[in-house]
DNA sequence: AGATATGCGTCAACATGGTTGACATAAAAA
DNA sequence: TTTTTATGTCAACCATGTTGACGCATATCT
């Protein structure tokens, strides 16, 4: 009964280390979403709206299907918030030129404005954390989180995403966005 | 129009860097919770139950008030899940010995069991990410997330939490758990 | 050309887990 | 003795997730 959980016990240290890793993620996410949530509440919206606005802003011209793939929710669930955002003119749809079934999503001016306000706090929070840590720490943050996300989404972070406003004028999917084979190969 | 957003534009790089930081957190959290969620669903429970089980397991003898402070939800909301967990014998309450108003929360054997199953996947996921990265990367992960969480909860990660099963036999709060002044100073 | 698959939308019902507000009891602290 | 704290409870409401069933337009396959 000497010192089972102080030193000399790598199993315990590892367990403790892993648990801290879990909790850091919980607390960070909790605090990360708190501010935008309260801003949204004033506009009668919720976190779900934020996510949609964010990713549409991030990927202009994104299709509904791809957005669903990112959010991993059902289309019925998305439909509710997306419908509101379109009605309230934060987002607009444009018919795809190549595939006319697609509704390509874009932020309106109003949407861009709101997106900016919403993420301002989050960007500041990250910037502060980055600044307080070293460049190597930032790199470590990225590496570890990267290792935690499922493979399919990892490629999004390969290189700084180039503009993906392909607007479906060409069948070339945005780099790293659409992970599927290009359409139209006539066998 | 040369190369506004490739090199030579630190503003853009910074923006891109911050956005990636935001998204990494979103994707990681999304994937991190997916598995336990689906396990819970089979037991007719949800993510809220997991959080309660997790933190009660992590802080045996925690009070309801302190648990609320961690989760940052209302007592009515907690009451629902906590009530279920007690009814289903995953958690038990013991009256505080010093302050007899307190209901100190503990996992039962069944609760410990479930907690272990639930976090197994999360621990594995973190372990995998840690292993894939370097020790310095892990340190960076911790540093950056630490910088993102609000000050009041940061102290929890000061040192590996020592056993805090004080069981309120002494008024000394568990180290790093209760961040308030000790009770009982008579003027 | 005809069959099949895909992208998107919609209606309806339901579950989970948040919220607010009001009120009650026991015990500790002032 | 009075006030504050820790906990619990009832009730109503809201946001956001789910499943299942359909429908239409358009693309793709055979």
Give the SSE map:
2 copies of one chain form a homodimer.
Chain A: H1 10-42, H2 47-58, H3 64-71, H4 75-87, E1 91-95, E2 103-107, H5 109-132, H6 135-148, H7 151-154
Antiparallel strand pairs in A: 1-2
Chain A binds a DNA duplex (30 and 30 nucleotides) through residues 45-48, 63-65, 73-77, 79-81, 83, 96, 99-103, 183-184, 186-187.
Explained architecture:
The structure is a homodimer of 187-residue chains. Chain A has 187 residues and is mainly alpha-helical. Chain A has a single domain (10-150), classed as Orthogonal Bundle (Arc Repressor Mutant, subunit A), CATH 1.10.10.10. Chain A has seven helices and two strands. Chain A has helices at 10-42, 47-58, 64-71, 75-87, 109-132, 135-148, 151-154, and strands spanning 91-95, 103-107. Chain A has a two-stranded antiparallel sheet with strand order 1-2. In chain A, strand 1 (91-95) and strand 2 (103-107) form a beta hairpin. The radius of gyration of chain A is 20 Å and the shape is globular. Residues 160-187 of chain A have low confidence and may be disordered. The interface between A and B is large, with 59 and 59 residues. The structure holds a DNA duplex (30 and 30 nucleotides).
Sum this structure up briefly.
The structure is a homodimer of 187-residue chains. With 187 residues, chain A is mainly alpha-helical. Chain A contains seven helices and two strands.
- Chains forming the largest contact: A-B, 59 and 59 residues
CATH class of chain A: Mainly Alpha
Please tally the helical runs of chain A, counting DSSP H or I stretches of 4 or more residues: 7
Give the strand line-up of the largest sheet of chain A: 1-2
State the helicity of chain A in percent bands. Answer: 55-70%
The CATH architecture of chain A can be named as: Orthogonal Bundle
Helix/strand/pairing class of chain A, anyone?
A: mainly alpha
- CATH-assigned homologous superfamily of chain A: Winged helix-like DNA-binding domain superfamily/Winged helix DNA-binding domain
> Which parts of chain A are unreliable, with pLDDT below 50 for 5 consecutive residues or more?
160-187
Whole-angstrom Rg of chain A: 20 Å
Please tell me the total number of domains of chain A.
1
Backbone shape of chain A: globular
Subunit organisation of the chains: homodimer
Largest sheet descriptor of chain A: 2 strands, antiparallel
**Percent of residues of chain A in beta strands?**
5-15%
The total strand number of chain A stands at: 2
Looking at the structure, the CATH topology of chain A is Arc Repressor Mutant, subunit A
Topology order of chain A in helix (H) and strand (E) letters: HHHHEEHHH
Quick check: average pLDDT of chain A?
84
